[in-house]
Amino acid sequence: MIPGDSGSENHGDLFADVGKAARAWIDGASSGNPGPAGAGVVIKKGGKTVGEWMEYLGRTTNNVAEYKSLILALRKALKLGIEVIIVYTDSELLHRQLNGIYKVKTPHIRELFDKVQALKKRFILVRINHIRREENKQADRLAKKARSSPAR
User: Fold this and answer.
1) How many structural domains are present in the chain?
2) Could you tell me the sign of the dihedral formed by the alpha carbons of 70, 7, 46, 126, in that order?
3) Residue 45 is part of a domain; what is its CATH number?
4) pTM of structure
């Protein structure tokens, strides 16, 4: 079973064509809040990793890093020709805001939220699922590596 996937969701034929469907694990990390931050993304198609990305984000908060990791994942997925994506995050805030459970109150997070919403419109389906931190080790490793690796 794939972490974070209960198997109860039926995505029908959308996942039958693994060329157009994928799963992404994302994470943002910040040393201090705010502090040096990074984003990590792992995308898999048909159970195989098709890409791992990390990005140094400069000095920012953990919540901003989480949103930027999602934006990075969606942009990479679009470049890969993915039309259906299930995203796994250990950020409860990100999950709840994007699923309409929490309101987005701060302007800088609203701007990132709006970017995500615009990117989501370019897919047939984007699902954001919450997983436990221990189920997100690959993306977490990349995000932590990115926060300590400023671009030179």
Assistant:
1) 1
2) negative
3) 3.30.420.10
4) 0.88
